[in-house]
Amino acid sequence: MDGFNFTEEEWKSVRIAPWIVGTAVIDADGGSPFSVLREIGAVDRQIDQALRSTEHRTLVKTIARDLRDAPGSGPLVEPERLADWQEQLRNALDIVDAKAPGADNRDLREWLYEIAVDTADAARDHWRVRGPRVSGEEQEVLNELGATLDVG
After folding, report:
1. Mind giving me the DSSP string for the chain?
2. Do the Cβ atoms of 29 and 137 come closer than 8 Å?
3. CA atoms of 111 and 82, how far apart (whole Å)
4. How far apart are CA 41 and CA 51, in angstroms?
5. Are 107 and 59 in contact (CB under 8 A)?
6. 5-14, 29-38, 83-92: which range is least confident on average?
């Protein structure tokens, strides 16, 4: 894992973090199937952008590459792992705190929050001109994510 000393089990927890935050937002207000597809697409775009970016550090790029290269790494991660997204995210962050401190850790936290914000923003239906871009339920999740990730 590009110089990080993660065990296989730790890496499984860390590598699904983008889908944990995306799923937390997607599940926040149970939008239409069209909205859910747009939200999944937002997470996918963030992963693709991280691969092309020159701004992200090694950990984010490694996660993004692994999510693109590994089979079954899309939004259909094991549901039992996402039942309690707060616990799963805290577990992944604890692992990263121990094994990837410093700039890689900060970059990951900021990237995860960016994924969450983009996912919430993507839910807005195309034809909806008025009203908030982010629902109240999604904003609550974003607030919680901001506190958990220590960003914002």
Report:
1. -TT----HHHHHHHHTHHHHHHHHHHHHHT--HHHHHHHHHHHHHHHHHHHH-SSS-HHHHHHHHHHHHSTT-SS---HHHHTTHHHHHHHHHHHHHHHS-THHHHHHHHHHHHHHHHHHHHTS-TT--SS-SS-HHHHHHHHHHHHHHT--
2. yes
3. 19
4. 15
5. yes
6. 29-38
What are the tokens at 64? 């993004």
The candidate with the shortest Cα–Cα distance to 137, out of 26, 35, 40, is 26
Q: Give the number of other CB atoms < 10 A from CB of residue 53.
A: 14
List pLDDT tens digits, range 100-142. Answer: 989 999 999 999 999 999 999 886 655 555 555 788 888 999 9
Reading the block at residue 73, the tokens are 């790494």
**In whole angstroms, what separates CA 55 from the centre of its chain?**
17
State the pTM of this model. Answer: 0.88
Task: Name the residue ranges covered by the structural domains of the chain.
Answer: 8-149
Q: Per the structure block, which two tokens stand in for 17?
A: 């973090």
Contact assessment for residue 14 and residue 112, using Cβ atoms and an 8 Å cutoff: no
Nearest to 73 by CA among 83, 62, 87: 62
